[in-house]
Design goal:
By secondary structure, this protein is an alpha/beta fold. About 20% of the residues lie in helices and about 30% in strands. The protein has one domain: Spore Coat Polysaccharide Biosynthesis Protein SpsA, Chain A, CATH 3.90.550.
Length: about 170
């Protein structure tokens, strides 16, 4: 079966990263690129993977592309430190990979939480983001902010979701 690499960039994410890492322990590889955290982010990440790298901040797109370059899987799942995945999405991703996927990339819906409660109205869901893609078929635009993956080939959608805890307090 093809391998999955989960790639995550971090900076002072001690409060968020454990929940995200716990949600992807089933992946073949987890790669973290940290840009100089002053808290315990790196120590927490090392509890889950030996592939934790330091890189001074290059901007979101470049930082994420570096994480992809440091990974080895045939499939890439890019997550932010505050984005654990639901068990249903984990199962769906395993199915996509084991069947070698009908598409080259997949847009994944995101459920955003504010002060611990899910935002259900106002256009916040499904907030599809292209986060799962085949190695060599997808790459982040090298923008400083608002980075997005560009995929060469067919793009599908998943039903399972990412949970986004961007607004804790």
């Amino acid at each position: 079966m093809p391998k999955l690499s989960v790639v995550i960039i971090t900076h002072n994410e001690e409060a968020n990263i454990r929940r995200t890492l716990e949600s992807v322990t089933w992946a073949d590889e987890i790669v973290v690129v940290d840009s100089g955290s002053a808290d315990n982010t790196v120590a927490v990440c090392r509890e889950y993977t030996g592939k934790v790298f330091h890189q001074d901040w290059l901007g979101y797109g470049r930082q994420k592309n570096l994480a992809i370059e440091r990974s080895s899987g045939e499939w890439i799942l890019s997550l932010d430190a505050d984005e654990p995945i639901e068990p249903e999405l984990a199962e769906e991703i395993r199915g996509i990979i084991s069947s070698n996927g009908a598409a080259d990339g997949y847009r994944i819906p995101r459920k955003t939480f504010f002060l611990g409660k899910r935002i259900k109205h106002g256009g916040w869901y499904p907030d599809y983001n292209l986060r799962l893609f085949r190695r060599g078929r997808g790459r982040f635009q090298e923008r400083a902010v608002h980075e997005a993956v560009r995929v060469e080939g067919r793009v599908g959608r998943t039903r399972g979701a990412i949970e986004h805890y961007a607004y804790p307090d």
